[in-house]
Amino acid sequence: MDRCDNDDDRDDEGDRDQAEAEQQALAELEAETVYFCDFADRWLDSLTVEKSTHSCYLGATEEVWKPHFRDRPVGSIRPSEIMAIVAELARRVTGKTVNNSLIPLRGVFAAALDDEIIDRAPTLNIKSLKHQAPKPDPFRVEEMDAIIGASTIAMTRSSPTGTSSRSAQWLRPSEQIVVRWSDIDWNGQTIRIERARVRAVVKSTKTSSIRDVDLTDRTLGVLDRQRSYSLMKDADAPIFENPSSRLPWPDVQDQRKPYFHPTLLRLGLRRRDAYQIRRTFATLALMAGVNPAYIARQLGHANTAMLFKHYSRSIDGADAGREKSKLNGVFGPKLDQKVSILPGVSQSFGVLGSEGSEKFGEARW
What we know:
Blueprint lengths: L1 H32 L2 H11 L4 H19 L9 H12 L4 H20 L26 H14 L8 H5 L5 H4 L7 E2 L4 E4 L2 E3 L2 E3 L7 E4 L2 H14 L22 H15 L7 H13 L4 H8 L5 H13 L4 H10 L6 E5 L2 E4 L2 E2 L5 E2 L6
Antiparallel strand pairs: 1-2, 2-5, 3-4, 6-7, 8-9
Helix pairs in contact: 2-3, 2-5, 3-5, 6-10, 11-13
């Protein structure tokens, strides 16, 4: 009886081993027959990301990776091949662009790993390239005045490069083009920011959060004058519209290319994106001594970390030398002066001689 039981156990183990071997063979066969182009398309179709993000992933997949791996089985692609493509790409575009191109490729192989088509992703040890992040490039006060004046004269008050640069300086361009009259609280003097428009699609804000932005007296005056241009249409109409078509702006590119950049060119100013208007406002507010936590809330940052990261120079320049004076008060006079260490005791601090050697004064202890 025991011997029969042992035989049954051995039969069960044999069946399990055979099943695992068949499963392994099936996985290897699938890895050889699932082609990169098909699986990449399947992965792209499964994404639930913003339209703009999906478009970027699709572009990188079609332009960078499919030309190399289109008809290759997913399991046949090697890390060295990817590294060679990255190296060639890095000679033509920025490190940031290369890193953005790697994002969808990593996603494709991560999905293949989850589906057990492959047992190791070839992108596992491929690191992102280092790149220099651009610093804020705000306009000077006189430049902002020139931009506002030029765009107000050249176009109607519905232009975002004119009045909206005054009244919506806290906002991202994608938020600015979709803000509505119904978002304004005239009594509380605030405007609610809860949506953005990117590539003609209305979505949530970049941080997926709603915030109320304070309106200054100057901003309220601008909005009051703006009423006759777009408020008469509908309370839910956008505050700022295309001055030519009198229709809502479908995307920030539609205002940047035909209006904002030509305005800078006419004024002889260095080319920058309209996003720098928001950064100009943040910079000027910091230099004026406005509380960083308040500025972060108005900009839509979760905390001040992003503010300090990008605008530390403005914070440093806002103190007019007060913080340096505090340090001088703590650490005392110059090194070549005599200072009193204890009552009745003094010491001359050494200074460098003409030949670079230290000459110490006599110390009385």
